[in-house]
């Protein structure tokens, strides 16, 4: 199977800090790969490199077989790579519905269209309803994100990215700061992305219970390097992971 | 929606009836205020809708006005042709300045647009062909009388506002609001933020040019002050005064400001002091502008 995302010998230093130091990895289509590691391990920097927010010092990023190293986020989105953020990244002054509409216009190459009002495009409205119902946000469509709970905001962030019909999604700490119930919902949503919607997911997460439950593969980072990788049950047993996390 | 339409039609009817009721002087003042309102709304496409503060918006006002002045006075061309040409010149200026400016935001963007405005001002002062610091005189009113030209202005302003309002309601309008709200998220839904900002800049610049082009025959003369930073500041000011949060806010701001100015001018030569203090008070009391405050009050009343 050809990997959906592959990263080859990626490096990014910030001065003396080796944030990402020679990382190589593959993510297979329709799988969930989780990256774990202590704070400062370089996990978010890795996501920033893959999603085009920053450029690597060296190394390559491939997406669906194409070398996309140094591509802008907007260009990557058009190729099918979407991303969510650690702090939910939504439009606070737009309604929930308009948050999704803006994404739908963009993916339909209609973000600059002047032909009709933005709220009267039937295909967009239907799709927006479908997406928001999928994420249980349809009832809250007229609210602004500031009126939503923390969990709903993060779900909206994922919903916006999903509206882009991506082949793969990068999630940065999708369950951070959530209550147990919100975590449960998010775990179900991420599983749904893979199982029902056939999206490849690469995520960074601190909650190991969540990681072990949903992942097909777990990658452990420490000080910019990959120190272990394998199936969840394998990773649970690896001595290095325990040392990094528990200081044993 | 129906109530809104009724209010709009009522306003247009009132403005159409104005010359009969108010006489020549206030017809002139109203036409001037409407054009200031138009340039402020065009500025607000960039500021209120896209989140970019331009301090050089008079550049396009001046470009439109000078295009009409040069073509009508120096080349004796008819007004419709001059108006059409001013669309092209302000479009060209907006594309060039926008292209160079939108890669920056905030204070850097403001300073760049200010610098371009001063550059245009310097060209207008130094270039003999444009009349130097005297400007260009004797621009004829295409319809002959002030009253009839007032209707040209009214039609031009109404059409321009209608087109800009439409733009705010299209997917492009939503895209601009998304870019203002969260440029990084906009980039991550596949929008080229630079292109969106440039689109906004061009729309904004072209309609500012139209406003200037309509103003030249009304005033009968153009001068380098059309490009000056004080004119740009006036545009920023009436927008904030009227309320950047609403589409029509800047027009209301312009109308109140211009009327106040003319009234105060009639009373004392220190009119700027009166207008200035009134405006400072308004901005302090209503940070969302007059229309913003009215909207907030209306919401309270309904509750």
Sum this structure up briefly.
The complex is a heterodimer of chains A (248) and B (303). Chain A has 248 residues and is of the alpha/beta class.
Describe what you observe in this structure:
The complex is a heterodimer of chains A (248) and B (303). Chain A is of the alpha/beta class and 248 residues long. Chain A has a single domain (5-245), classed as Rossmann fold. Helices cover 37% and strands 24% of the residues of chain A. Chain A has a six-stranded mixed β-sheet with strand order 6-7-8-3-9-10, sandwiched between helices. Chain A has a four-stranded antiparallel β-sheet with strand order 2-1-4-5, covered by helices on one side. In chain A, helix 3 packs parallel to helix 5, helix 4 (122-134) crosses helix 5 and helix 5 (150-163) runs parallel beside helix 6 (180-195). Chain A is globular and about 55 Å long. Chain B is an all-alpha fold and 303 residues long. Chain B has a domain at 20-227. Chain B has twelve helices and no strands. In chain B, helix 2 runs antiparallel to helix 3 and helix 6 packs across helix 8 (193-219).
Features:
heterodimer, A: 248 residues, alpha/beta, Rossmann fold, six-stranded mixed beta sheet, 10 strands, 37% helix, globular, B: 303 residues, mainly alpha
